[in-house]
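Support request, please re-run this one:
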Amino acid sequence: VAVIPVGELERAKSRLGEVLDAEERRDLVIALLQRTLAATRATPRIAQTLVVTPDDEVASIARAAGARVIRQSDRGLNHGLEDARRAAVDDGATALLVLPADLPGVTRPAIEAVLTTLDDERTPLVAIVPDRHGRGTHTRLLSPPEAIEFPFGGDSRAAHRHAAVAASARVGELGGPLSLDVVTPA
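Re-run finished. Output below.
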């Protein structure tokens, strides 16, 4: 199951405010979300896509694309992801791919590259794609879905590795097009 967290469009990409106005930032988030939804739908190994959001318009876009919407009950990313994980596990998920909607390099081949870590069936597995700075985590694959908690925020790459080691999980770290996100003008 793929999980795509998306915040409120009204507050979208505020750090891009010096180069894009509010409407342009909103349009950018929608375009990136649609690209991400198309990539997950095109990936045969993904049985279901869940979009976690507090935003009505994002929910409508996700449903129109065939995704299941999990209304975020709390503003925090980790809490929203936990809601999605519970829904995925209740539906029988054997692995969970957390894929933010702000990765311009998201494609079926990029997603499949992450999913190939499942070919080695040893579990638990935590596979991550760190950000281009090597501190954050853009994409995470967990098998089983409960392999570790959700330590997003701050230095999440180290937190993910630490949580995986503490859980005696096999750790995979990948690079590639999912390591670039759209957050700042740089």
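Strands lie at 2-5, 49-53, 68-71, 96-98, 125-130, 137-143, 170-173. DSSP finds five helices and seven strands in the chain.
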